[in-house]
Every structure is written in structure tokens, then in C-alpha cells.
Amino acid sequence: xxxxxxxxxxxxxxxxxxxxxxxxxxxxxxxxxxxxxxxxxxxxxxxxxxxxxxxxxxxxxxxxxxxxxxxxxxxxxxxxxxxxxxxxxxxxxxxxxxxxxxxxxxxxxxxx
Amino acid sequence: xxxxxxxxxxxxxxxxxxxxxxxxxxxxxxxxxxxxxxxxxxxxxxxxxxxxxxxxxxxxxxxxxxxxxxxxxxxxxxxxxxxxxxxxxxxxxxxxxxxxxxxxxxxxxxxxxxx
Lengths: 112, 115
Description:
The complex is a heterodimer.
Chain A: E1 4-5, E2 10-14, E3 19-25, E4 30-38, E5 44-51, E6 56-59, E7 62-67, E8 72-77, E9 86-94, E10 100-102, E11 106-111
Parallel strand pairs in A: 2-11
Antiparallel strand pairs in A: 1-3, 3-8, 4-5, 4-9, 6-7, 7-8, 9-10, 9-11
Chain B: E1 5-7, E2 10-13, E3 19-24, E4 31-38, E5 42-50, E6 53-56, E7 65-71, E8 74-79, E9 88-95, E10 105-106, E11 110-114
């Protein structure tokens, strides 16, 4: 059974800092990995999707990397801003069945 | 496209009442998912459909929960009878298998409170 872990559960950083959010998964036979953002009381917004054949994806100040063999992904946020404060969730599809398994998320607070 | 649409956004009901949550997926998407989010358990997949057919309902907690997808543009999740422990945020998501990306797009959720 696939398990996705995100540690730490919460993170507080000063504005402008570059930061890395970690995600690990137990079954390396993934189809793809998605990073989501969730603002308080809101739904999930897809940030980046990495196919199993890819190593990384970039969107603006965000860069996500994937190392299938070690069961790890990282989300890099450059020059963090207070508007980046949210919960970031990692999720994987294991096998071509389209089912997502989520981590518990990392709640990020960027201090002005 | 308007994205995934869910209704109602908030629902407060008394224990024992029937609750129906509704979802309209993104047009053209062939997968639809129902999730539940709580502080204790995080996001859990309840059931998903492919081309309107239920594929995996192993996440449905009890027989009190049922889901239908009568056509490609509409799905319901019903709880009957509801209990306080069903209080959670229920999300609907959809994806398209074309291009083999299976990227999921989420609705805004329905916050259910059962008193």
C-alpha cells in the first residue's frame, strides 16, 4: 500500500528565503506525482505535475524534482513571499489507475 | 471552463438526516473522484468513476454512503443517515486520461457539519 509522507508538518520562514519542501513515498512504481496548494478554507490548486519519466518541472518561482528510485520529491520555492503562505500537499498516482494518494501536507508561513 | 463545480458550499444538518452533495466535473473529463478531508485523517479517496462507471469504492466508509454518476456532467454523493463523525470537507475532482497525464482538478469543496 502506497504511503506518502511530508515532514515537517509546519514551516515558518522569513520573506525572501529560498526553501525546499520534502515529500517521500514508499512504492516507487508511481505513474506521476502532483504538488498542490491549499489555502485555508479553500480547495486544492494543482501547482506542478511530474510524469514518472521526468526529473523535474518548473513554473515561475516553483521547481519540483522527482527521484523515483529513492522515493522522493522536493518542491523548491525561490524568493518566498507572504502570499506563498498556504498548505502544500504532495500526491502520487501508483499504477495507471489514476488514484491519488496524498501526504498530510506542509503548512508554510512566510513572515513579512 | 468554469472548473469543477460543487454544491452546496456549506451544509449544516442534524444527525439522522439525509445529505446529498453534488458535483459537475470539467467538460470532457472522463474521471471523477470524491474525497473527504478531515484534520485527523487528511485527504481520503472515497470513490472514483471512469466514464460514469464506479471503478473503486473501497474508500467509502460505510453503507450509509453512496455515490452515483448518471451522466458525464453530474455526480452525487449521498449520506443517509448522517452522523456527527461525517462532518468534514468533501471534495470532488476530475481528470482527463488523454495524454496520459491524469492531472486532477479539484472543486472548492462542500463543508458538511452534522450536529
